[in-house]
Specification:
10 strands; alpha+beta; elongated; Sortase, Chain: A; two-stranded antiparallel sheet
Length: about 250
């Protein structure tokens, strides 16, 4: 039978002078240590699921959306009859000195990012994509042209940096020239190891004074960021912008 039932314990009943009977609900039992442990475990699992969903959102949805935006900005930069005329299509670009555009076929046939001076998060690494370490060489110069980009978060421009291998090339486009760099070496280092962007990187096998190198850096592991992943490349070819982009990029006149 459904409905309220009278208490069978007299101590749970209070009778007022007018005959009204108050039936007190039983007090909840005190949790045992086992029950408390189970409650903590359930809370931890719930928080873990929330954290996993957040990381998933950051790693896949948000990064994908920001990456698409950065890619589109890079593809649309310039425009008109003079594809290499530097213009600023959005407010964020007015806050940074953009001097080039990078193409890395290993990251995807359509992958491209703009390169701006400096490595501050806003607006360079977060919105534009790739930042040039101030004080290091410029593209094509003797020394070390060093750049940085996020690996996870804010589009993760260098998310696939670990996939670069022998035979891969990186293309840097500027107003007047294309610079083609070929892959040399990858290394994981401590965040304090700034020698990797030296004019002659000491940890790069075979590096020599007078060499023309390029260094790509990012955080690793993704979202943990306890170390830095470094990729070294060497200048392989210089092409005049007036001659058009390297044929192997297959940019279709872009």
């Amino acid at each position: 039978m459904f409905g309220l039932q009278k208490s069978t314990n007299p101590s749970d009943v209070t009778e007022l002078p007018d005959g009204t009977r108050i039936i007190w609900a039983p007090l909840p039992k005190k949790r045992t240590g086992r029950q408390a442990l189970l409650a903590v475990g359930e809370t931890a699992i719930t928080l873990g699921l929330i954290l996993a969903l957040f990381v998933g959102y950051k790693a896949f949805l948000q990064d994908s959306l920001v990456a698409d935006t950065q890619n589109q900005k890079a593809q649309g930069f310039g425009g008109g009859a003079d594809q290499h005329k530097l213009r600023f299509p959005s407010q964020v670009h007015k806050q940074a000195q953009i001097f080039g555009r990078m193409y890395v076929p290993r990251f995807g046939s359509k992958w491209t990012r703009l390169i701006a001076e400096g490595t501050r998060w806003h607006p360079v690494l977060n919105e534009i994509g790739i930042g040039h370490y101030v004080g290091t060489s410029m593209p094509g110069e003797v020394g070390n042209f060093a750049v940085a980009a996020h690996r996870g978060g804010f589009g993760g421009a260098f998310k696939e940096i670990h996939r670069l291998v022998a035979g891969d090339k990186v293309y840097v486009e500027t107003r007047n020239y294309w610079y083609v760099y070929k892959y040399l070496q990858t290394k994981i280092v401590d965040p304090t190891d700034t020698s990797v962007i030296d004019r002659v990187p000491l940890e790069l096998t075979g590096s020599v004074s007078g060499g023309k190198y390029m260094t790509m850096t990012s955080c690793t592991p993704i979202f943990v960021n306890t170390h830095r992943i470094v990729v070294w490349l060497e200048l392989d070819q210089v092409i005049k912008a007036s001659d058009g982009p390297p044929r192997e990029l297959n940019l279709g006149g872009n």
